Amino acid sequence: MEDLFNKISDCVEFGKINKVSPYPPNMKDQDGADELTVQALEQGASAREVLEKGLILGMEKVGVKFRENKVFVPQVLMSAKAMNTAMEHLKPLFAEGNTDKKGVFIIGTVAGDLHDIGKNLVSMIVEGNGYEVIDLGTDVPAKKFIDTINDFPDAIIGLSSLLTTTMASMENIVKEIKAVHPNQKVTIGGAPITQEFCDQIGADNFSADPQGVVEFMNKLKISA
Amino acid sequence: MKGTYTYKIDFSEIELEKEEISSFMGLGPVPEEPFNSMIDAAIELLSNNKNIEGGFTLKPVTDFSAKEGFIKVEDKTFETGRMITSFLRNAEFAALFTCTAGYEVEKLSKKFNAEGDIVMSYVVDSTGSLLVEGAMDLIYEKLKTMVSLNNLSLTNRYSPGYCDWLVKDQQNLFSFFPKGFCNVSLSETSLMSPVKSVSGIVGIGKNVKYLGYICDTCKNNTCVYRAKKMYVKH
After folding, report:
1. How much is the mean pLDDT over chain A?
2. What percentage of chain A has pLDDT greater than the value 70?
3. Which residues of A touch B190 (CB under 8 A)?
4. For residues B6 and B53, what is the distance between their CA atoms, to the nearest angstrom?
């Protein structure tokens, strides 16, 4: 079974969706995440095992490779697509109470900013690492974040910004969230964001890449 | 110099190259499959787009302070920040522009996303980004030809949201345009619709300079855009 989990992990890492998918070329005609997940379940693996020993491991590797500029957005998306395909087989089992999510992550691009590629990548990699993601979209005002926190009080908030000029919006949103929910954990990211800016506005974490967000959330989960 | 000009741009005029799209996405000039086919498909789908358009209005610059970081065009003050303002030094006129690739890009991108094809959604989105930049390059060339008849030159084009120029100045910028200009509108938070739209200012004058890729000339050595060598087209 371990060999099957490793193969599933490889399929996610390299974006091999299913047997007919031509990508990546060196895995042509091989079973993909789709078929291997079915095989693992048929051989008695639980949905949780497939998720944790196969899919999440693969997604973690992609997150690290993206951080190291070894892969780019399209390859990460292929990995996410492979993961999503496998998840289609697991979701019905999760719905039966077979497994739990690690936590809830609420993410959005701050008010005044429409850029969503970075946010989407973080969403996919965080979801791929076993968390439930609530994506509020782009141009999101503080009120929407606060309203959603009220519905999911244990969630962690992620704020994204691409424009240097919407960093002020990010600062306001952090302040407004902290005014209502002083203990709310907020992680921030985006091209112009730095650790210095994070410290300055009172956010709890800055990550330069999606994997950093996962590591922050895992650390919080361990210490909780 | 004065007047307001609009242009409909045909997709074929932009001459979008597969290599450019592939490199933009980080895949290098020769994309492997399935990205190669996806880029071909995105180009094919967007080639039917008849709503690529843009334009500009020409207005006199009435005041300027690089130190205080503003430029005044007619009676409106743009807080462009020290850096952009210094790049607009000696501008006698301003061309205030907008350009869009239309709603087709986001419609298609959303459609693929809804179908679960997140990769194709991204390829379409990236192709749309280059499409609107390519269209604006053509309009910039038309402006260049126009001002050269008066022995004038152009600066780079600069946009709200970049460097220190706040997005909220979009409201000032769009106040110069007739209603519905080029079918681009602004949200309350000053974001453009369609999403694949650009806007900004070009300085015009006898002694203005075109600086090309400005990150190398900028004195802000700690800027993240410079440090991360991000793709910034001006």
Report:
1. 89
2. 96
3. 112
4. 7
The overall average pLDDT reported for chain B is: 89
Structure tokens at B212: 């090309």
In one-letter notation, the amino acid at residue A22 is P
Q: Which of A28, A62, A114 to mutate to test the interface with B (most CBs of B within 10 A)?
A: A114
Query: What one-character-per-residue DSSP string does A131-145 give?
Result: -EEEE--SSB-HHHH
Tell me the domain boundaries of chain A: 2-95, 104-223
User: Residue for token digits 């980004």?
Assistant: B129
The reply to whether residue A81 touches residue B118, judged by beta carbons under 8 angstroms, is yes
pTM: 0.81
Distances (CA, A) of B113 to B52, B110, B125, B135, B226: 23, 5, 11, 25, 32
To the nearest whole Å, the CA of A223 is away from the closest chain B CA by 32
What are the extents of the domains in chain B? 3-227
Higher-pLDDT residue of B201 and A59 is B201
Class of domain B3-227: alpha beta
Q: Which CATH architecture has domain A2-95?
A: Orthogonal Bundle (1.10)
Cβ contacts of A78 on chain B, cutoff 8 Å: 119
What is the interface size between A and B, counted as CB pairs within 8 Å? 76
**A95: pLDDT strictly greater than 70:** no
Q: For residue B230, what pLDDT band results from cuts at 50, 70 and 90?
A: very low
The pLDDT-based confidence of B228 (bands split at 50, 70, 90) is very low
Judge whether residue B61 has pLDDT over 50: yes
Q: Distance of CA B52 to CAs A95, B22, B123, Å?
A: 46, 22, 18
Which three-class secondary structure state does DSSP give residue A157?
A: strand
The span from the CA of B214 to the CA of B232, in Å, is 9
- Tens digits of residue pLDDT in A30-75: 999 999 999 999 999 988 889 889 998 898 898 888 888 899 889 9
Neighbours of B234 (CB within 10 A): 16
Chain A, nearest residue to B22 by Cα: A74
CATH architecture of A104-223: 3-Layer(aba) Sandwich (3.40)
